[in-house]
Amino acid sequence: MLRELLRIFRSDNPIAHMGDNFGEMLELTRDMSFRAGKFFFDQPPTPDERTQIYKQDVQVNKLERRIRKQVIAHLAVRSNGGDVPYCLLLMSLVKDVERIGDYAKNLAEVFDIGGGPLPDDENEQELQEIRVHVEGTFNAVGEVFAKSDEEQALALITQGRDMNHRCDTMIARIAKGDYDAATTTSLVLGTRYYKRIGAHLLNVLSGVVMPLHKLDYYDEDELGDGIGD
Q: What residues make up the domain containing 196?
């Protein structure tokens, strides 16, 4: 179904305009996530930088509402009833991308809500590795989605699932550590937000390999046996 949706995106069908908006959302949230990573690991944002990421978040939210409006208007025309599955797929993907923007904004705000300097130790190093993985996935998502590359999507989903488990293990380890409250806050929230950004990217990738009724369900059994069911 994704291949058919992408074909529609490239046609004169009104859904194509929704595809343009979706692509803009994806690029905005990618930029927000990368900016937030710099704020989190390097230095807190300046007032102007903070304003910029808030403006991007507003843009993402407006694009989500625009796509919803476009979907409703499109489906209100009786002759477009055959596009319902594609519109449902797009609505699911759009919501995941909007959530990525929220978590990127949250990541940029960690020091504003009581987070402290990151420690120079193995936990900070592992969190940097998680960041690299999430940003690498983000860089790959656009092309994988555009090409409907199931093989690469499956590889990224498998890697991402492992990374999510790694985040859970890291949070448990931090909780048992002897960091002060501010440092613990930064480590736990940073790990949590990167996990959620990564998880929503996996949901987008699931649109490449899963049927509509199984979107977001990328468990091992589903990937092994459920595709095409």
A: 2-226
Cβ neighbors of 166 (< 8 A, separation 6 or more) are 126, 130
In DSSP notation, 54-109 reads HHHHHHHHHHHHHHHHHHHHHHTSGGGGGGHHHHHHHHHHHHHHHHHHHHHHHHHT
Residue 207: predicted pLDDT: 76
Q: Mind listing the pLDDT tens digit for each residue in 97-116?
A: 999 999 999 999 999 999 99
pLDDT confidence bin for 22, thresholds 50/70/90: confident
**Between residues 221 and 168, which one has the greater pLDDT?**
168
Question: pTM of the full predicted structure?
Answer: 0.85
Q: How far apart are the first and last CA of the chain?
A: 13
CATH of the domain at 89: 1.20.58.220
How many domains are contained in the chain?
A: 1
Q: Which residue has the tokens 């993985």?
A: 133
Core vs surface per residue 10-38: b (16+ CB within 10 A) or e: eeebebeebbebbbebbebbbbbbebbbe
